[in-house]
Amino acid sequence: MHTLKHILTGMDGFQLALTVAELVATIVIASIVIKRMVLNIRYFIGLGAKRLFKK
């Protein structure tokens, strides 16, 4: 693992901007996926609970 300072000095501005953009995009996509998964899980738990209470 390189230190952040080494990465910063080894890259030009364009590469650095691309790397930062990739990191941000990854974080944003991951958060959206996690939110959707949580909503789906809540939905299925809700369905299961309704079926249990109906019986």
Overall average residue pLDDT: 85
Please state the structural category. Answer: mainly alpha
- Helical coverage, percent range: over 70%
Report the order of strands and helices: HH
Fraction of residues in β-strands: under 5%
Q: Which shape, going by the Cα principal axes?
A: rod-shaped
The helix count comes to: 2
What ranges have pLDDT less than 50 throughout 5 or more consecutive residues?
Answer: none
Give the termini separation: 56 Å
Query: How many β-strand runs?
Result: 0
Main beta sheet: none
Report the C-alpha radius of gyration, rounded.
21 Å
Structure write-up:
The protein has 55 residues and is mainly alpha-helical. It is 89% helix and 0% strand. The protein is rod-shaped. The mean pLDDT is 85.
Short description, anyone?
With 55 residues, the chain is mainly α.
Indicate the topology.
Blueprint: H1 4-10, H2 13-54
